[in-house]
Amino acid sequence: DYLDILAISCDSFNEDINVLIGRGQGKKNHVENLQKLRKWCRDYKVAFKINSVINRFNVDEDMNEHIKALNPVRWKVFQCLLIEGENSGEAALREAERFLISNEEFEAFLERHQEVSCLVPESNQKMKDSYLILDEYVSIPHEL
């Protein structure tokens, strides 16, 4: 009654790549879990969305077959983005520099997946101009 869309992160359908990018599931089968979640969404009439961050380790992957089989209402495809202090720089929680891809590599990924009708790409430039990213550890002055 209270849920209309469920967004699931899926950066790769290859478990070895998931391990490289820090999303390994151990003994769990990531694709089977996605299929189970997809079925639950159908059963309970909840829209199913997939978010993928395209990076150095998955940029050459062909996800067409898996995405088409899962048939999400939207597949949001993000280019790996550096955020100073969050995933880059000395105070970073993660070191994202090694995950970065060029704009050309991101475009090649999009080109390879152009037949997926629900694909919604978000390049770094588009993300920088459309999201407000707040850090829960930084206080905001009252003047704002």
From TrEMBL:
Domain of life the protein comes from: Eukaryota
Keywords: 4Fe-4S, Iron, Iron-sulfur, Metal-binding
Protein's UniProt keywords contain Metal-binding: yes
Cofactor(s) of this protein: [4Fe-4S] cluster
Keyword Iron: yes
Gene3D superfamilies noted in UniProt: Aldolase class I
Annotated InterPro entries: Aldolase_TIM (IPR013785), RSAD2/Viperin_antiviral (IPR051196), rSAM_sf (IPR058240)
SUPFAM superfamilies: Radical SAM enzymes
Stated name of the protein: Radical S-adenosyl methionine domain-containing protein 2
Species annotation: Microtus ochrogaster (Prairie vole)
Gene: LOC101980709
